[in-house]
Design goal:
Blueprint: E1 10-15, E2 18-23, E3 39-45, H1 52-55, E4 59-60, E5 71-72, E6 85-91, E7 94-96, E8 99-102, E9 112-118, H2 121-124, E10 142-144, E11 147-151, E12 169-175, E13 178-183, H3 184-199, H4 203-211
Antiparallel strand pairs: 1-2, 1-9, 2-8, 3-6, 3-9, 4-5, 7-8, 10-11, 11-12, 12-13
């Protein structure tokens, strides 16, 4: 069986009633782009559950309560599993250098951090999806300020003859962890509204935009 190497990028710390993520200096640049208030997916390695005996345990009593029936670990959040990975969704409350302050979590002090990913409602709460992931045009996505604009693929136009603009989801808009969907009619309304806002900009600003090649 192929083996994988995981390099911890930091550790969880509990100190003086505070919980924070201490990111190692060599990974500090990876923090850039995270902001206070952001929600993140935190992937940890439960090192205290990492031994040959515990890795062989494939069924547990959920919540460590013997009154609960034995259940396969893949159907639980138990720390005892073949690979003792742990997954948390937490909010960043403060960032100081390479330290991210979060709410309390039950990981022990010194627990290795395997990875951090931003929380994306569209991906992490798939029950709310309006567009099948295979129809999302990731390569055509644009990031403007803190907004992600992700268009829908249009490879099945022959199937859309009977679909009304109000029924066709055309654009996915992500702002932080929040996701909203615009149908084709709403997309046109948005474009018109943005054009109106642009026209109301001071003439001096529009002239400077033109000199930068950013005018409409």
């Amino acid at each position: 069986m192929e083996k994988f190497n995981l390099a911890p990028v930091g550790v969880v710390r509990h100190l003086e009633g505070k919980t924070f993520l201490e990111i190692y200096p060599e990974f500090a640049e990876a923090i850039e782009g995270l902001n206070e208030g952001d929600w993140i997916k935190l992937i940890l390695w439960f090192h205290e559950s990492d031994n040959p005996e515990r890795r062989k345990i494939l069924k547990v009593h959920p919540y460590n309560n013997p009154e609960n029936p034995l259940t396969g670990v893949f159907a639980t959040r138990s720390p005892v599993r073949p690979n003792p990975l742990a997954l948390y969704t937490v909010q960043i409350h403060r960032i100081e250098g390479n330290t991210l302050f979060i709410d309390w979590i039950d990981a022990h002090d010194g627990t290795p951090i395997v990875d951090i990913k931003i929380f994306v409602e569209r991906l992490d709460c798939p029950i709310q999806r309006e567009v099948d992931e295979k129809e999302v045009d990731i390569w055509g996505a644009r990031q403007i300020g803190g907004i992600n604009l992700i268009p829908r693929r249009n490879e099945h136009l022959d199937e859309l003859e009977e679909v009304k603009p109000e029924e066709y989801t055309a654009l996915i808009v992500e702002l932080g962890e929040k996701t909203t969907y615009l149908n084709a009619a709403e997309l046109v309304e948005l474009i018109n509204a943005l054009n109106e806002i642009y026209e109301e900009l001071p003439g001096e600003i529009k002239d400077k935009l033109k000199s930068l090649g950013k005018s409409l």
